[in-house]
Amino acid sequence: MPVFKLIDEIIFPPVDLAEPDGLLAIDGDLSAERLLTAYSQGIFPWYSEGSPIMWWSPDPRLVLFPDEIRVSRSLRQVINKNTFRVTMDEAFDNVIRLCSDVHRRDDGGTWITGEMIDAYSDLHARGYARSVESWEGDKLAGGLYGVSIGSVFFGESMFSLRSNASKVAFVSLVEDLKVSGCRIIDCQVTTGHLKSLGAREIPRSEFMDILRAEKLEEMVVGLSDRSNKY
Fold first, then answer.
1. What would the pLDDT profile of 123-179 be if each residue is shown by its tens digit?
2. How far apart are CA 68 and CA 91, in angstroms?
3. Could you tell me which CATH class the domain 4-58 is placed in?
């Protein structure tokens, strides 16, 4: 199938036209309107420095249903000992930059470019990008960030400078999302780290059925101009 080239109008091709690896389209921009529209349709940007913006919708999709969170005995002990102090939305800029720095150090590159940092910081200012922080004393030990639309949380990246710090942040996020009535957490692509916490793969068609049932596409009409607190 062809890879589509986006135009200035904020529209995306159907996700079932994506390549086998999930690549759907290139170009466009990272405006709040385009990002929120993409997420509502099961699409996310992922690209490296120097390449065009690339938009993906993989099949299968790794997701976590909040009630299926799996906390090992050792992780529960870390949580119960209050090894880390967890906060939410207190240090978004630091979290996204540390995610970028850690991936660059560990992998030799990162998709969290300066352009991406600016775009998600803008979403955070509008109330749609969230961060969770694990602190060791007054220093960030780990954290994660993602995008929240209605009853769906779209995870983007996490980092850990201390063992279990990002896992503790993730468990805290899931517990908070349970209270708010979150239906599903999108983990995007499969990793052993997330599977160990209870994430599992589902067909893209099932993921899209959930997004449609939650009426995300209807919600993003004019969404970037409204607050999204839950």
1. 999 999 999 999 999 999 999 999 999 999 999 999 999 999 999 999 999 999 999
2. 28
3. alpha beta
